[in-house]
């Protein structure tokens, strides 16, 4: 029979349990305050928004805790959006420049959408000419909302966008919701269709677009509608109500500091069906919806 070192085995099990508890604690903490301990496990590394104090990772600001593998970071709730290449963002046109549009992205400065970085009506791919520059306002004009992707970042903090895809472009048939960028959870896709027949675009800059559902085949069949300024005339009262309910659910989730993603929105929508539409954003109802969404997410 082999000799087993019971002391070493117990110490090993204790270390495993400590790491598991620390891992679980790091995952459960979503909102941190300055000076709040996050984890004491040596398996984790400190990231932005944290510091080391007596072998413990401590938050240095108020924000949302993010854990990527063994890296623990804290994103500030009130910070401006800092873009990354490939991010999906929702913005508003604020002005026109030389062969470009200026776009409000909730960042430190406006982003730039170059004339060469868009698709022409009908999906035509060709070099943009002077005539295209003269009719730039027929594509996008001041006040228009659009969804785009970050193409590049520059040393001065400026952001360059592109809309070279049919899923990007001008937004219609919906409404805009503004929430703190830290609450928008990164995922593989930021284009979602809620079962109630509502499309949601989760912009990583904190701007979320909620609109009537339009099947992809309809968009592909009518590429000239990409730059249309008119909403569809056949939006029903039920579709308008569902859009408004989803908007109020997102506002309620943000007030409860819950990460915004497709699953949380669906749970919040289901929980809100027992309340009148106008009461969803009140403190009492928002708190009840938040508790139910948290319980379902943890389950």
TrEMBL record:
GO cellular component: cytoplasmic exosome (RNase complex); nuclear exosome (RNase complex)
K Homology domain boundaries: 174-214
Major location (coarse): nucleus
GO process annotations (BP): CUT catabolic process; exonucleolytic trimming to generate mature 3'-end of 5.8S rRNA from tricistronic rRNA transcript (SSU-rRNA, 5.8S rRNA, LSU-rRNA); nuclear mRNA surveillance; nuclear polyadenylation-dependent rRNA catabolic process; poly(A)-dependent snoRNA 3'-end processing; TRAMP-dependent tRNA surveillance pathway; U4 snRNA 3'-end processing
Recorded superkingdom: Eukaryota
Keywords for this protein: Exosome, Nucleus, RNA-binding, rRNA processing
Domain RRP4 S1: 80-152
Keyword Chloroplast: no
Location within or outside the cell: Nucleus
Exosome complex component N-terminal domain span: 31-67
Keyword set includes Nucleus: yes
Sample GO molecular function, one term: RNA binding
Family: Belongs to the RRP4 family.
Classification via PANTHER family: EXOSOME COMPLEX COMPONENT RRP4, PNAS-3 RELATED
Protein name: Exosome complex component rrp4
Organism for this UniProt entry: Tieghemiomyces parasiticus
Taxonomic placement: Eukaryota, Fungi, Fungi incertae sedis, Zoopagomycota, Kickxellomycotina
Gene (UniProt): rrp4_2
